[in-house]
Amino acid sequence: MFMKGIVMKRLICALAIAAGALAACDVTHPVAVVGPKNTVYRGTATASFLEGGWFQATNGKTTCSGRYMPAAETKTVTFPVSCNNGLRGIGTATYETPYAGGGEIVMQDGARWKFIFGRGALIV
């Protein structure tokens, strides 16, 4: 009986450590954003468990970034986007899988930019 108690305590400790490690885990994916005149911005998107995530992409001259909150019951997230040249917009992205998806960013000037994350971003 004593050994069962020790084994159970160790199992509970191991599960608590694993849960803590997962909660602090960030996952990074490639991102491609296609802007005006098919200008491609490349970068990364990082998702953090229970905290949402962020992306940053650049074409070498202009850098754009945004943060999003986790999607509770839907596969779609909406996020503000800002660029270092003053341009701003609102992005909407849908997860096709937990690791990939895409959508668009509607900039303040009305331009619609394509947003891709995951493996699909590597072939743009």
What does this structure look like?
The chain is of the alpha+beta class and 124 residues long. It has one domain: Lipocalin, CATH 2.40.128. 18% of the residues lie in helices and 51% in strands. A hairpin with a 3-residue loop joins β2 (40-48) and β3 (52-58). The N and C termini lie far apart (61 Å).
In short:
The chain has 124 residues and is of the alpha+beta class.
Number of DSSP strand runs: 8
Helix content: 10-25%
| Oligomer state of the chains in this structure | single chain
Query: What's the number of domains?
Result: 1
Count of separate DSSP helical elements: 1
The largest sheet has its strands arranged as 1-2-3-4-5-6-7-8
Topology pattern, helix = H, strand = E = HEEEEEEEE
The level-1 CATH class: Mainly Beta
Keywords:
Lipocalin, alpha+beta, single chain
Write the layout of secondary structure elements.
Layout (H helix, E strand, L loop, with lengths): L1 H22 L2 E9 L5 E9 L3 E7 L4 E6 L7 E8 L4 E10 L2 E8 L4 E6 L7
Antiparallel strand pairs: 1-2, 1-8, 2-3, 3-4, 4-5, 5-6, 6-7, 7-8
